[in-house]
Amino acid sequence: MKKNVKYLGVAAAALLAVAPVAVTGVANAATIQVQGGTAQPSATQGTILANLTATNVASLKDGSNADTVAADLSATLNGQAITPKVFGDNKAYVVPANTTDYSVTNVKNVAVKTLKANTEYKLVVPQVGFTGLSTDAKANYTFNGGKLTVDPYGNSNVVPVVSSTFEIAQGNAYFTQNNTVVSGTTSIELGSVNTVEALASKIQGEVVAANTGSLTQSNKTALESQIKNALANAGVAVNANGSFVAPVTNFTVPYTAQFPNGSSATINVIVKVTSTTPSEYTDNGPQFALTANGEKVITRVSDSKYNLSLKQGTNFNANDLVKAFDVTFSKSNGAKLTTATVVSNNVNTAVPGNYQVVLSATNPAGVTNKVVVNVTVTSNGTTARTVKYVPGYNVFAWTINGNRATISDTKYPDGATVTTEGEGVTVGGVKYLKIANSDLYIQAQYVDGSYKPSTSNKGEESVSGVLTVKYDGKGKVGLTDANGKYTGQYVSKNSRWKVFAKKTINGREFYRIGNQKQWIPAQYSELAD
Q1: Measured between alpha carbons, how far is 327 from 317 in angstroms, rounded to an integer?
Q2: CA dihedral sign of residues 454, 460, 461, 464
Q3: What CA–CA distance (Å, rounded) separates 262 from 484?
Q4: Taking a C-beta distance cutoff of 8 angstroms, is the pair 479, 518 a contact?
């Protein structure tokens, strides 16, 4: 009895016998990575699309062997991934881009072994087929726009798959300036450029990175980073928005161009600052100003002197004081310097006493300024202090309610001893220390040695007598400083005060009833001898 025998065609037999996923070691063939999919497609009709792609073009070089090309082969049936089968000689050949005959014989004849720069190629897999298709006699498939034949066992006929064209754009990196090749070091003018992004554009626009192939290089990120480093080395801080103030001397930016094929070149670009040292650099030199956090713990006495009070045993690091200040180039230039430094520090918080920390900053013009932070370490209990005012005169105590300080009738003569407690409070920019065992406060300047009697009473006329506060409104009368600015100090209606001088401030007449921060408008005063 005869056995039932199914005879396979040549193409079908080849499909069943060979199903490679990668091919290497052939001089004019690419390595193929086959993408898998559904083992048994269910559709009885539809469109099969195959895609062949060279995946490592950017790394290929002039003179590379064709077998260094990496290829990816995938296929879909009605959008569903299926597995293509590479058979025959199992190769993806690199052929000239103008090749149109994809027969095995012709592809082998025209396939290249060595890649050349600036030349277009494409990949060809001459024999690709598909298995597991429908055996239904009515099954109907198209492949890349053409009819696909399927045998009674679900195996398709073999067809060529062709990639898009690609180019080996390989060469050596170099730079040109004014259409002339430059190397090593070159220069440009900074001009009015004042941002990192604009300077990067200017460098790339004038010192053009090129490649003997057709590759281009346009990424500015690395160059902008190199510019920031160069400015930092020149002592110039870059603001958050990328702006900066031109340094006073030329600076060098190392510019590296990196191309996709791995070639690179570096050139040092000297950025020339054509102007002489701007006056804004030398105008009083670097300026120190307390930050918002610094103002919470440090008191400004003058541009160069500050006070800080610490409790005995407090952990203290002088470098933390640097963070309490913003330092700018000069009075007329608000650009920030990178940092200040600690010049000297003798603070010992284990022992109550008076200490100093000196901070210094230098701007790019070489101008240096320093500030002194007087640090008072107080004992954990009360502190006996000596009133230091003007011989023969008194200092008044104050009451404090919230953010209002009001002068009281209690007074302490110059040289008297006052015992204070706590770290004190600041009202209207004036620091007050609480007098122990009372509800009164005394201005810190009169007991910490910071008060200096005025040596200039410009515009004042000496007056003697007693003044009575006359005010018909609600509340109390506010006092001003010698410039007419309210100080946060107040005096009560009908209270009486000794008068020392009178002065016209901003067109109004005032009487001084204490120091230069204690002037009362004459309109609220009644003066008697």
Answers
A1: 19
A2: negative
A3: 71
A4: yes
User: 325 - beta bridge partners?
Assistant: 290
What single letter denotes the amino acid at residue 456? Answer: S
Whole-angstrom distance, CA of residue 186 vs CA of residue 205: 14
With cut-offs at 50, 70 and 90, classify the pLDDT of residue 206.
very high
Decide the pairing of beta strands 140-143 and 45-54: parallel
What is d(CA 133, CA 295) in angstroms, rounded to the nearest whole number? 81
Q: What pLDDT does residue 106 have?
A: 93
Residue 86 one-letter amino acid: V
* Domain 461-528 belongs in CATH node 2.30.30: yes
What is the model's pLDDT at position 486? 93
pLDDT at position 276 over 60: no
pLDDT of amino acid 22: 37
**CB burial string 352-367: b at 16+ within 10 A, e below:** beebebbbbbbbbbeb
Q: What gap in Å lies between CA 400 and CA 477, rounded to an integer?
A: 15
Quick check: helix, strand or coil at residue 279?
helix
Residue 57 structure tokens: 């073009």
CATH code reported for the domain at 281-378: 2.60.40.10
Q: Write the pLDDT tens digit of every residue in 427-483.
A: 888 899 988 878 899 999 889 888 876 554 677 877 777 899 999 888 899 999 999
Asked whether the predicted pLDDT for residue 1 surpasses 60, the reply is: no
